[in-house]
Amino acid sequence: MKAKKILVTGGAGYIGAHTAVELINAGYDVAIVDNLSRSDKRLLEGIEKITGKPVKFFEGDCRDRNFLLKVFQSEGPFSCVLHFAAYKAVGESVEKPLLYYENNLNSTIALVEIMIKCGVTDFIFSSSCTVYGQPDQIPVSEAAPFKKAESPYGATKQMSERILEDVSRNNIRIITLRYFNPIGAHPSALIGEIPLGTPNNLVPFITQTAVGVREKLTVFGNDYNTADGTCIRDYIHVVDLATAHVKAMEYLSQQRETKFYEVFNVGTGIGVSVLELINRFKAVNNVELNYEIGSRRSGDIEKVFADPSKAMSSLGWAAKFTIDDSLLHAWQWEKKIRDK
Ligand code: NAD
Ligand code: UD1
After folding, report:
1. pLDDT per residue over 39-72, tens digit each?
2. What pLDDT does residue 316 have?
3. Distance between CA atoms of 267 and 144, rounded to whole angstroms?
4. In degrees rounded to 5, what are phi and psi of residue 89?
5. What pLDDT does residue 313 have?
6. Ligand 2 center–CA 206 separation, angstroms
7. Would the pTM count as exceeding 0.85?
8. Is 14 noted as a catalytic residue in this protein?
9. What does DSSP say about strands 173-179 and 122-128: parallel, antiparallel, or unpaired?
10. N or C: which end of the chain has fewer CB within 10 A?
């Protein structure tokens, strides 16, 4: 039987590359589209090394309908499109809101337009737990209402979700995955996250400090209403996140309806504080970390973690890696890219 063809946009980025590996290893025929605006070609090489297969890569922009049409016509028919391509830096989105609205919304709209034109029905979208803001109930389930987005980035995810829910009434079948905090790297240390400039996210900042690229980590506040005073998040290994996409895609393909829209949280269900994470990182990797307690970062949520029960029961998915695995793999990857 011929392998099903899957389109992965943003597949030269962090989560898209890990998902491409899981798809190829599961026997799918993957085509990657990326404009390389926020990526590093080492990830495409890493996918080839892990899977032992050449990557079908098409450099171009998801807002460019002519480019997309060519890829759909030459590489299709696709049984599913997994859409990772977007800008994701929260701080940058506050400084340059139009850049974020323009890229994140227009790429999604153009892609769905071309899918409809080419008769492709199945679509998986990368959303974020940022859509919940500080939820009233924790663990947070998919039924929780959106709070006003803290940033233009968060607003693009809320708006995209609304657009996709509306579009799903036009015979498109869509699953939105709301990721909690993706961390770690592939256990082979052949792919991982390569932040551009100074990282905003905690784990890349920790690994860069431990490896000596940054002088010290600042813990953003220890006066929150949590056991040790620091914020709590649900950190999920990027390979577990990648396998959730394969499960979601297969679940979608089994649906009989022509109109379909469903949302799933993708998290572990376990809340970990900033200080707990730092201490696990030091213990697992047997390294020191220079850090200090600083003031709160504006816009930070005190505490959030997922209720992942819907993904577990409907998709048959559950996170397999532990927080220690994630921190070990993140450290192995950091050392690898610094050649240590
Ligand atoms: P990433 O920046 O590593 O990857 C995104 C990729 O998309 C990059 O390779 C970039 O070059 C590409 N891209 C951006 N705009 C494009 C366009 N118009 N056309 C073609 N390619 C384009 O980010 P990531 O961490 O892999 O995130 C993937 C998706 O998951 C994004 O939609 C992001 O918003 C979402 N997400 C990420 C996180 C996280 O913490 N990493 C959390 C929640 C949701
Ligand atoms: C950030 C984004 C969110 C996005 C998510 C996943 C903000 C405000 N929110 O969330 O929209 O969906 O990433 O990509 O940026 N921390 C420190 N010191 C640091 C860095 C972080 O103490 O140098 C703390 C933060 O205060 C937070 C925790 O570590 O409590 C995790 O931070 P981060 O990795 O940036 O993720 P989020 O804040 O959850």
Report:
1. 998 999 999 999 999 999 999 999 999 999 999 9
2. 98
3. 15
4. -85, 115
5. 98
6. 12
7. yes
8. no
9. parallel
10. N
Q: Which atom of ligand 1 is nearest to the CA of 17?
A: 26
Which member of 100, 132, 153, 179 is catalytic? 153
Domains of the chain from N-terminus onward: 5-185+236-268 (3.40.50.720)
Residues 308 and 235: their CA atoms lie apart, in Å, by 13
- DSSP code for 321: S
Q: Give the integer Cα–Cα distance in Å for 242 and 266.
A: 10
Tokens 């008769």 belong to which residue?
Answer: 119
> What pLDDT is recorded for position 329?
98
Ligand 2 binding residues, C-beta < 6 A: 90, 128, 130, 153-154, 181, 200-202, 205, 217-220, 231, 233, 274, 297, 299-300
Backbone angles phi, psi at 283, to 5 degrees: -70, -45
Q: What average pLDDT is seen over the chain?
A: 97
Element at 22 (helix H, strand E): helix 14-25
Protein residues with CB under 6 Å of any ligand 1 atom: 9-10, 12-16, 34-39, 61-63, 84-88, 103, 107, 126, 128, 179, 182
Please, what are the averages of pLDDT over each run of 10 residues along the chain (340 residues)?
A: 94 98 98 96 96 97 98 97 97 96 98 97 98 95 95 97 96 96 98 92 98 97 98 98 98 96 98 98 98 95 97 98 98 91
Contact 42, 110 (CB under 8 A): no
Of 7, 9, 14, 235, best ligand 1 pocket probe by most atoms within 8 Å of the beta carbon: 14
